[in-house]
Amino acid sequence: MKSGLHPPPALWCCPHSVAALLTLEVTCGCHGGGRTGARMNLQPTLTYWSVFFSFGLCIAFLGPTLLDLRCQTQSSLSQITWVFFSQQFCLLLGSCLGGVFKRTLAQSLFALFASSLAISLVFAIIPLCHNVVVLAVVMAVAGLAMGCIDTISNMQLVKIYQKDSAIFLQALHFFVGFGALLSPLIADPFLSDTNCILSNGTANASTNLPHIRKSLVPHHPGNLTHYDLPMKGMVVTRVSYAFWIMALINLPVPIAVFFLLYKERMVPCFNSSSHPLLSADELAMEARPVEKDDLSTSVHRAHAAGGHDDLFSCCQSKNFRGASYTYFAVHITGALVLFMTDGIVGEYSGFIYSYAVEEPLSVVHKVAGYLPSLFWGFITLGRLISIPVSYRMKPATMVFINVIGVLITFLLLLIFSSSVVFLFVGTASLGLFLSSTFPSMLAYTEDILQYKGCATTVLVTGAGIGEMVLQLLVGSIIHDQGSYSFLVCGMIFGGLAFTFYAFLLFFHRMYPKPSTGKKAPALSPYQR
Prior knowledge:
Order of helices and strands: HHHHHHHHEHHEHHHHHHHHHHHHH
Mean pLDDT: 77
Strand order of the largest sheet: 1-2
Strand content: under 5%
Number of strands: 2
Structural class: mainly alpha
Number of helices: 23
Helix content: 55-70%
Oligomer: single chain
């Protein structure tokens, strides 16, 4: 490997990540400067992938460990579920504000460094939180860090690869799924099998702990209030070890970001030395004579990259001057599609266990506990499959297949609602169809807007709001109307996602086409 192209420390222990990028480098070789672009951006791309692994590690640990954290903080079931809300709300807030740090590459990397380091510190501090309010504040910090990571990593990959960004975004979202699968596996050996607060009269709750753990959903303790979970007594839990292990696993990620900052001479104490030598490909790009069309296109791209901003800056009136109605329509309909699809991910993963154990299916608790894992496992598998598929298929086509697949799956789940076997098949199918929706929609929307709008910030924010709101909405409906309404809600949300996507296709046809001209080779923002 050439000088200056070594993978960051976070991925030295993960050779599959390097192999994945080399595979992407080969598949992108047919796209003009795609192969050269992948080589020039090897280290930044691997770094963004590792940061998104950190995001996935943090997003999935709370559910399995919540009962042990309840014991640690000696709080009630309803009190501890508000820790979920603290994390989710601040994640949404961080997603809205993440665009603030995109103005320069240095700001983006320093924000990613601070966010990934904050996640490691949060993992290390959680075992020291013996008050539920303190724990909620710590999780709020984690949520802000996760939101910044979500927005900045997506923005930077879109900025680097633009037309070729779809395949790299698919890989990015595979890593968040991989992290989300890994953290519950790390936590599982340290979870309490019996009540972790020793007191008299807790036998009923102790025998139902696995059921309670799988039924916990943000803001919806559901029918769990009749279980007598003590708040006082001797705390017996080993969950602290799980958090310390995750803190150590995540520690190479901020080191990788710092290594990239150092390589780019952005660390104040180390920026006096000369710039590293260019590789052969980079030297050829630098030596290539710049034509007038290429220069204008490069200037246009630099201006386009400036279109990404935080949500509040995007809403300033100066950004709307001269914009057509289709400009707003593309942002809104794209965000609404992800509002529905990410909302489905949140509500399905949150309530599928509760739906399965109740009538008419009445699945055994232990068997039903595999359903959320099956759902997330197929989401991760689908994201892995989507990496090569996105090279052959346009993002618009992938989104169309996804929303149609979600709609048909919910329809079949309703038709075969009494079949336990089809519930497992439908859960796996739904995970596959939902897996690539977000990165494909992001690539498609940015392509429509010619990388000049606020698509990344708006879409990330819309997806985050949908995940929160639809989970709350479905929880309330299930409580009032019964478990069957769970599938009906999914069918309605899938239908709305398809409808909004049809509107997006219509507005795409109406959107002003870019002026034709000679295509400039892809230049890395690290070389501009």
